[in-house]
Amino acid sequence: MNDIISTKSDSIMRHVSKNTKPTGLRIVRPIPLDMDVPVQRRDVTQRTNVMWLLRNLAVRNKEHAEFDAVFAKLKRLSANFKD
Fold first, then answer.
1. For helices 47-61 and 67-80, what crossing angle results, to 10°?
2. Which residues span the domain enclosing 23?
3. Of 6, 19, 21, 29, which shows the fewest CB atoms inside 10 Å?
4. So what's the pLDDT on residue 75?
5. What is the pTM of this model?
6. How many folded domains does the chain comprise?
């Protein structure tokens, strides 16, 4: 059984890899999964979470490759909340 699986390629992945135009849904996560952030703070639709992230994101994630982009996104989100 393993020989059959290893010799046949996955037709879906072959189609995906040759597709150069984006199609379908794209999942955009404001906070990358590999950032060290508590699960309950990942909901950026709540003002309290956005403000908490602006204060605390750098504590464990300042060296993350996407830190600057995420921080800028959080600043834009915070501006959308009315006081």
1. 160
2. 2-80
3. 21
4. 97
5. 0.67
6. 1
